[in-house]
Amino acid sequence: MSVRHLSLPLAVRPARRDRLRFLLTLFGVAVGVATITAIALANGSVLASFSASVDAVAGKASYTVSSDAGSLPEETLNRLAWLRGIGGAAVPAILDTALTKDTGDVVEVLGIDPLSEALVREHAVSQSKEVRRAGAADLSRLAQLLEPGTLVVTEPFARAHGLAVGSELGLVAGARDHVLRVVAVVASRGAAESSAGSIVFTDLANAQELFGKKGRLDRIDIVLPEGLSTESRTRLEEEIRTSLPEGASVGRPSRRTETVERLVRSFRVNLTALGLIALLVGAFFVYNTLLVSVLRRRTDIGTVRALGASARAVFGVFLLEGALLGVLGSALGLGLGILLAKAALFAIGGTATQLYVPTASPRLFLSPVTLALSFGTGVVASILSALAPALEAARVAPASSMRTGSLETAKRSSAPRFALLALGLFAAAAVAARQEPLAGLPVFGFLAVFCVVAGAGLLAPLAVTVAGRLPQRPLARLFGPEALIAQASLQGSLSRTSVAVAALTLALSMMVGVAVMVGSFRGTVVRWVSDTLRADLFVSPAGGKSGASFGRLPDEAIALVAGVPGIAHVDPYLAISALRNGAPFTIGSGRFEVLAANGTLPFLDGRPAKDVLLAARAGGEAVVSEPYAVKFGVTTGDLVELPSPKGPQRLRIAGVYSDYSNDRGTVSIDRDLFQSLYGLTGASSLAIWLAPGTDPDLARMRVLAAAKGRFALRVHTNVNLRKEVLRIFDQTFAVTWALEGVAIAVALLGVFHTLLALVLERRREIGLLRVLGTSVEGVKKAIRYEAAALGILGSLLGLATGAALAHLLIHVINKQSFGWTIATEWPAGFLAAAFTGVLLATLLAAERPATVAARTDPARALKEE
Amino acid sequence: MGANVAVEGVSRGYGAGASRVVALEDVSFTLAPGSFTALLGPSGCGKSTLLHLLGALDRPDAGRVLVAGRDLARFSPGEEDLYRRRTVATVFQFFNLLPTMNALENVRLPLLLDGASVAKADARAKEALLEVGLEGRERSFPYELSGGQMQRVAIARALSGSPELLLADEPTGNLDSKTGGQVLELVARLHRERGLTVVMATHAAEAAAVATSVLRLRDGRLEPRAS
Fold it and tell me: Does B55 contact A at CB distance below 8 Å?
């Protein structure tokens, strides 16, 4: 008898009869797959959109020259003039970000050299009716067209802002307002496709003026002659490298995407790991459903075995059923995931752009690889979950008369063995937690999490068995005989009840773990903010809709602010991005003497900030943030190498301070040293201390009034900035909470699923209870007690496991991913609420099964044999 | 003491229209308290339907079923539950033990449902198991018992609460003849010792022989009475 012949009686027909249970299982798998699909698609789209922008801007360039720290001196271009002699070209550009004055939207500004632009990027005049009607510009005369104060816009940008040739566009760049005239509208092709069309082009000199980058370049795109061999290209790349000044490097344009990929990698990996939890809960569903099927169909399986079906064929039927559930559930999950990704893209995109790359909203990119991987993961997880039930089915002897009860006893006797295995897994977790990260990722940390979660799941049968042995007299006295019915049923259906407990444990433990981690992180950040944000006012360039602030305040703005009555001290903070071994970090600078006198910086070794900062200023030393120290494995006394136009600078590290503002890592040096190394002026932000007795709100109004019409500033009072920091913090973790919610919902669905399965399976027993005089209310009560027991066991195990996970998340995964030290805090209120919430939710999940049970007609139920 | 039973012009059918099946038609009889009556007839003749009506698991379409003078159809749901706990007890062909409970737990369940303490119920259940000859098997689960032993547990359960009416639905139908004979003997002994009213449905004339009176059912109708 083949799998094909057996599928109908053993799988298809029973599934049709049990539609609700199978639909719930499909849904469980679908939710898991949808979650990982949505996360992968949303993250992939952010990166794909960034990568597409990078490619669009790079055009025909084979290589891009950029600075390892800040920008390039203009004379770099002269050093590459030899390229023209071999038929190549070096095309300079400024690429920075501005805000539109009317809507506050972020827009990329590409400053181009009109004479050489055509060598690297193509631009074509828009063929839209409006543009043609207004009279198209001649792009072949780009140099004449791009006069000072003019720009070229893309078709979508023109549409969004109601622009045409001749219109004026207000831009805020470097905290200053600028008005530029549109001289051409280009089609969405080539560079115009960058940032979903949120890009404008202007003359190089114009852009240098806009962003305060006179004599500087952001990049030089290198075009090599066509038809070169790989060897020649490598040789040329080497020649270019030797032509470059100190602090500049050459690489493929995709290098920028790789840098961003590295930036968001930890963030993405952590989210995906959370998504996998939802899938794991879905896999529990498949296991549970198939196991129930096998248990119910033991007699049928025994009969077909007696009729000559091989054990292998029976195994095949149930494995196929698991695979089918996986295929259907995953297909449904992909659809759901795409919808979810569309919705989540804004949230995740928002978080990523807020934290890492300010850019326009990314478009959803349906990567076939991502879709295939998510689908495959769902199917494989389902097949793996089906293995154990399929083996169980294959072991059924021909014409088996073995009853479910004896099987449950066998399971009960294996509970201690499972518990022992759990202990082994916990020990393995303890060992894994002590390992170093692999390639900067907390691989062993995740392994430890897996061991703890799997171990907790294996403890579930023991927990149920222990609950089944609770003294009956007090139970009956407190809750009535229905409690004893529930107790017997709980233990009598161990294979199902323990799976429900395990699923609940898993979901709740992740929720508790993440809640404790986020709560502790928040508490740590609140303390850190109150320790470090001591200044009265904080000034930065206006950030528009993006929330993040970018660009630089010019020196005039600093002077203007410093001159406002009531302002005592100003500490200008200026930072640039830099690379170390391909990994991005920040070089920051401030007036150490002002910070030493007025503010504070919490150093990890507890030394007073004043001593460390003054010594660092005097000795030309640097202080580094904790994420930098962890990421690059350095500590106080070590040397840190900073790329600079004057060549690599090796500075001694005077101290390591806590910093939760970013995970890239920051090397901070005194402003004088910074300016001598990088020749940059202005500031990314200003910390301001007021004269005693000055009202911060009044001072804020004065600063804004003084800047009005000259600089676009954002001024926060201390109180406001603290609130803003926490707002961004909470927004960052919003996605995490959503995922936790999904996992909990799926687990509760599991409880519902288990109880309903038990009720349907025990119709006859319920009928018998009614014959013995159990009232309708009594039957409902027994089901509710059983649900409560599942809820309590799942919650207790979940809370204990969650505590272990919190420890791993805080001290291993977070530390290795981001380098932050977090002080653990136990949110007692939240934990109590989670416990109560899960308990109430399980009771709610029991209502429908309880009603189904109560409706059982005893006479009919007893007739069914 | 047993209850008196009066079945007056009872009819019961299932389904509607052309597919309607009449299970009982105008059945009337009375049973004296402490009597042991066998309902004899082939399968499908309406024996189980009649037992369900006597057990208040079902209601007649026409006529009345009175046990100890009370019309079962007039019971509120609460009274129905109470009736099943205190007045009537049932033994089934397929034993119908709760597989998740051991023998003692199965037997004491009706007592607990009726408000007895665990200690009292345990003591009473042990007595009942002793009475049916199952001492020492209190902790055994149904799957660990033979068919005869399971039926004894079911009988112990039925009698643990001192009911006035015992309904037995083919109690030997799933047992070999020797074990079946032992079970019948047990039922007869308990009937003698306790004086409760027993109604036993069976298709086997030899089983019906242990009863003090026999009611023959054929196609839902009662045949003339014989002793």
Answer: yes
